[in-house]
Amino acid sequence: MVTAECKPRLDDLVEQPTTDGGSSGRGKDDPSLASESPVDHEEVFSPDQQRAIIHRVDRRLVVVLACLYVISLVDRVNISTAAIAGLNEDLGLQVGSRYSIIILTFFVAYTVFQPLGTVLTRKIGPRWFLSSITLAWGVVMIGTGFVDSWQSLAGLRVLIGVFEAGYFPGAIYLISTWYTRFETQKRYTVFYGIGCVAGALGGILAYGLSQMEGLRGLRGWRWIFIIEGVASCVGALLSYFFLVGFPEESHQSWRFLNRQERDFIIRRVNRDRADAVTEPFSFSAFLQPASDLKIWVFAFIFFCVTTVGYSINYFLPIILLGMDFTVAEAQCLIVPPWVFTGLYMYGQAWLGDRFRLRGPFIAFNAVLALIGLSIMGFHPQNPVRYFGVFFVLAGASGNTPPVLTYQANNVRGHWQRAFCSATLVGAGGIGGIAGALVFRSQDQPHYLPGIYASIACNVCILICVAGLSIWFRHRNEKARQGQVVLEGLENFLYTY
């Protein structure tokens, strides 16, 4: 077992032959492997072959999930681009807090139904569950293009929240079952980063679709919802044929790996954390981690991250209008900060996995967001305020993959991981609710209450990460001295 302080070695990524023909670190009598189909222990892949297998998993698993996440994000945040393309005026969303209520209705449903995402992904299967909910919210999105009142819009946003709730936790959980602990951040970053950067391009797409103004007697903002809804339905149908299940499932439903390659994936995950094989489901096993304080600290950190991230996502086009940019400029200028954020996230992920550190990067991102919020909120010149947006997005939304990885690296066991994923993304949904409330229409153009709330969230992140790092270091020392066994696994050490 490797520790957070060790540098990566080739042994951590590839199998080495042992005297008994098995894989290093796991004997041929390992019970977790005995419950699986027989493994040819004489067969050992070369390092190059092993890397090729892992890259094949990357292309089939992470890229497909990322493409669906693009659809999810575009459908979730397109209301902000539609708002400045005529939706606000037609449905009177600028009256009182109607716009915030519309966002709030989505996140209430999204938060309530998220805990079911990991359980249903496991029980129904990723292919059926994830593709079905994508098709469902695509149909609702098409219907959104024909609403005639803000109350109807709010009702449809509830349905979109219900269907989208299962995707993110299900996808995050699925990815975590295929990789070792110190490979996950790069995969989470590709999954989340592709989604965010491509989702940001939805602003340019929305501007193009809004130019269909008057076609078939429909306003441009209606075409934004209709066309993007059709794209979601098409993506859902295609995803059914390309999504894969869990590594221990029969490969008959997905043939990109043969039986020996699948067993190789299972063995390497078992060597890392000994939980590749699913434990029988029970509510007691699922709820057992609820007494672990660190799980709730992870959830609170993610709440703070998403409060800032979602608020910026939903209000950025409107904030840019307040900086005296035109509608077309506001819809297009959201793209450069997201491109910068995507590149920053991947560089950070490479370093995080390379040096096996999580907390310091999360803390650095919080400081970066604090700098950006100060510039965006208080500088008198609009071009400089726009420059601050780059730091805010990189520090806030860029903190999502490392926080997901921070939590995933420090828990083990299938249903514990499922519970922790559910609490984390559930807290993220509550952060979306908070983000909808802290930025209010009456606070434009500077939105200072939202700026203050976002600053407070990043300060809380710094405090929590410092506390967890001290605690993890203390527990690791106890484990090295043989005084405790962490997470029920000999030689397991926390990552900080």
Gist of the model:
This protein is mostly helical. It has helices at residues 10-13, 31-34, 47-91, 98-113, 115-124, 126-144, 150-164, 167-176, 184-200, 202-210, 220-242, 259-273, 283-287, 293-322, 327-332, 335-355, 359-378, 382-396, 400-408, 414-438, 448-480.
Note the topology.
Layout: H1 10-13, H2 31-34, H3 47-91, H4 98-113, H5 115-124, H6 126-144, H7 150-164, H8 167-176, H9 184-200, H10 202-210, H11 220-242, H12 259-273, H13 283-287, H14 293-322, H15 327-332, H16 335-355, H17 359-378, H18 382-396, H19 400-408, H20 414-438, H21 448-480
Helix pairs in contact: 3-6, 3-8, 3-9, 3-10, 3-11, 3-14, 4-7, 4-20, 5-6, 5-8, 5-20, 6-7, 6-8, 6-11, 8-20, 9-16, 9-19, 10-11, 14-18, 14-19, 14-20, 14-21, 16-18, 17-18, 17-21
How would you describe this structure in keywords?
disordered N terminus; globular; 496 residues; Growth Hormone, Chain: A; 0% strand; mainly alpha
Q: Would you mind describing this structure in some detail?
A:
The protein has 496 residues and is mainly alpha-helical. The chain has one domain (48-250, 292-487): MFS general substrate transporter like domains (Growth Hormone, Chain: A). It is built from 21 helices and no strands. It has helices at 10-13, 31-34, 47-91, 98-113, 115-124, 126-144, 150-164, 167-176, 184-200, 202-210, 220-242, 259-273, 283-287, 293-322, 327-332, 335-355, 359-378, 382-396, 400-408, 414-438, 448-480. It is globular.
